[in-house]
Structures are given as structure tokens and as C-alpha cells.
Amino acid sequence: MVRLVLIFLVFSLAQGCSLSPHYDQLMALKGVGDSQAEIQNDAKKQKESFFKLKDSIKNNHLKKGMSKNRLFFNYGEPVFCRNENDEGQVRELCVYRLPGNNFNSGLIYLYFNQKRKLDSWELISRVE
Length: 128
Prior knowledge:
Layout: H1 2-58, H2 68-75, E1 80-86, E2 89-97, E3 106-112, E4 118-125
Antiparallel strand pairs: 1-2, 2-3, 3-4
């Protein structure tokens, strides 16, 4: 019995040592796979947010004066936001984008005033 356990232990250690040189490579591949899944998940969320916001615009559910926080809660985070200076008036532009397509196929611009309230919006979409 002891001999059988000893043989099993030696065999296990030999197998473990033979796999260890490739462990870093395997972990790198696993990391790439995890990153790809994360990218696909983010793209799915962007697409859902874009179409939900687009439907709200087409159905006149967006109203001037809506809070930025409320919009982000209802439609998810935009791809990015940046401050703009429009004729001396500072406002914030937030962009929702249809992922995986060129930039002209699906964009929604939301403009917020200094009080973080929706000022205006623009839908640029060639996708129905």
C-alpha cells in the first residue's frame, strides 16, 4: 500500500513539473479569453443602451431638464463625456455609440448644461 502511494506521489510530481513551464502561457491565454468576454459584454451593453435611448428619442420620452444622473441610470453610461465651449457657454457632451460599426452609423449626442440638466440631443443613425 505504501509502495502504491509512493508511486502515485512520484508520478503526480513528475506530471506537475512537466506542466509548469507552460503555466504562464496558459494563464496568458485565459486572460485573453476573459478580456474578450468582457469586451463582448461591454459591446452588448452599449448596443442595448443605444437602442433604448434611440427609442426614447423617437417616442418623445426625452425631455429638456432631465438630470444627467437620471439619464445615466435609465440608459446606462455613455461611451464618453467631454466639456465643450459653445459660444461662451460651457456645456457637457455625452456620446452613446452603436458598437462594432463605423461612427456614422449610430451616434447619440446628449448635451447637458452647467447644472447637469439635459439641454438638447442629437440622433445620428443610419440603422433602423
